[in-house]
Amino acid sequence: MKILKSFIYVFFIVVIFILTAHKSFAASAQLSPYSWDPGLYATTSTYGSTVHAWGMRKNQGAWGTGPVNYQSGATTTYRGSSSGTLNVDLKGTYCPNGVCAYGAGTGYKGLVQFWNDPNNYIAFGFIHDPGVSPNGITIMVEGAANGKPVGGYWPGGAINGASHHFQITWTATGISVTIDNQVTLGVYPVAENNPSISFLAASREPGDICDTTFTGISFTPGSVVSNPVIIPSGSPYLTYTDTITESGSGTGYSAYINAHDANNNAISVGIQTDSTSASSHGLPFYTWERVQNGVFSYEYLSPASNSPTNIELAWWSQDNTAVFYVNGTPIADITVNLSPRLFFNIEGNARINGDTVNDTFGPVNIVVGNNCPTYCGLNGSWNSSSFNSYGLYATQTNSNSENGATFRVQGTVSGLASEQTWDTNQVSGISMIAQYWNGQ
User: Fold this and answer.
1) Which candidate, 329, 326, 299, places its Cα nearest to that of 311?
2) Measuring CA to CA, which of 62, 136, 211, 361 is 20 to 30 A from 36?
3) Contacts for 134-137 with beta carbons within 8 Å, 24 or more apart?
4) How far apart are CA 3 and CA 424, in angstroms?
5) Mean pLDDT of 365-392
6) How many Å apart are CA 31 and CA 197, to the nearest integer?
7) Are the CB atoms for 334 and 314 separated by under 8 Å?
């Protein structure tokens, strides 16, 4: 996933806000937090990419001896599809002395649970328990397949550390987990044709502490039943349409249109190809990217193509909602707060040294503002020279100064350090124009 950055060009002075992306901000599903113990709590991030479940248990009785009253967490608002993949990091965030763990006391858990029905469910996670891992944590798989137990516990202390990556893949007939991209457990024959998916922490006895943060929660497209696209009423403050063709070679490249403000907020929609992505597997996908107060998030939506495609970004200021259209059909609504004056990019990107991009854009059409003529329309002309980097460059291919302009972004990435990618640096060819703003 490329880095998204905001660019401001005001009074001929270029100010560049570098908003470093990190994959832990992926967000793909609505989550509902809950708790079954008055001492345990759960919160979710604004965009559903993080769950924090923690606290000190108050209910009486050891886990497994009574009702399930010893946990807190969050569950997907919509149930899963009949197949999919989830990526998530489980981090122990109980850190009283600077050394972090998944909890404290006689027993605690951090787990991801797939619940299809009372006879088909499974949980993958870590457990500290006097019986199975008295001196540390171990790997836990607990569940049932057609009513028969599956899973088990690895030897005590079989795993250490307070941060581990899970990739869980499920179908209507089975489910598996790969831990830290090294070891795969399963496939377990648990039917998962319509699961609810939960991110949970649990404490064994009253007074025990559990504390797990789940970050980077990301589902492959179609894994979770999608929400209907909601289009706000009234006229949008911004409508930005463009015909784009995304093309390139190597490990990753993309083509986006972008709207941003001067306050570290931005929204991009377009097409991205990334061979390193667990979501797209190197195929072109419609993708949105967002920055809110410097926090980056994104979502892969559905397969795209490398053919010319009409895309549209509309934004309703009164609802703080953007809608992404493809060939006139809405495919996503995205909560995003922008503070006009707005600025607009066409942007082509590539991932690492040696990757190439060859995107085309246009003719662009931008309708912006609701207080005409003072704060309405575009100002000046497109700037195709000030925002190019690492061998990529934007070129305007006709003479239209505002609407109707066409562009090409080309080049081969060079000059990145060996460990650098579009996740760490702005690797782009960009052309930009500003909203007309009281004479400027």
Assistant:
1) 326
2) 136
3) 136/160, 137/101, 137/102
4) 7
5) 96
6) 9
7) no
Residue whose entry in the numeric block shows the structure tokens 């909890």: 103
Rounded-to-integer distance, Cα 121 and Cα 312, Å: 41
The secondary structure of the chain in percent helix, strand, coil, rounded to multiples of 5, reads: 0, 55, 45
pLDDT reported for residue 229: 84
Q: In whole angstroms, what is the distance from residue 293 CA to residue 265 CA?
A: 6
CATH topology for 31-219 is Jelly Rolls (2.60.120)
Q: Determine the distance from the C-alpha atom of residue 436 to the mean position of all C-alpha atoms in its chain, rounded to a whole number.
A: 32
pTM given for the model = 0.62
Q: Which amino acid is at 24?
A: S
Q: Look at residue 409 and give its three-state secondary structure.
A: strand
Look at residue 45 in the predicted model and tell me its pLDDT: 81
- Please state, in angstroms and rounded to a whole number, the distance separating the CA atoms of residues 287 and 267: 11
Q: The tokens 């460990």 sit on which residue?
A: 419
Domain residue ranges in the chain: 6-22+229-435, 31-219
Q: What is the largest CA-CA distance in the chain?
A: 76
What are 215-266's pLDDT values in tens digits?
988 888 778 876 678 899 999 999 999 999 999 999 999 999 999 999 999 9
Q: Could you tell me the sign of the dihedral formed by the alpha carbons of 217, 221, 225, 228, in that order? A: positive
Q: Mean per-residue pLDDT for 190-211?
A: 96
Both tokens assigned to 339: 């503070």
Confidence check: pLDDT of 34 > 60 = yes
Give Cα 329 to chain centroid, integer Å. Answer: 22
Fold match flag (6-22+229-435 vs 31-219): yes
Quick one: pLDDT at residue 368?
97
pLDDT for position 224: 84
Instruction: Output the CATH code of domain 6-22+229-435.
Output: 2.60.120.200
Mean of pLDDT values over 52-72? 93
Please give the Cα distance from 399 to 300 (Å, whole number): 34
Half-sphere exposure of 14 (CA within 13 A, CB side): 12
Find the radius of gyration of the CA atoms of the chain: 24
What mean pLDDT do residues 354-365 have? 98
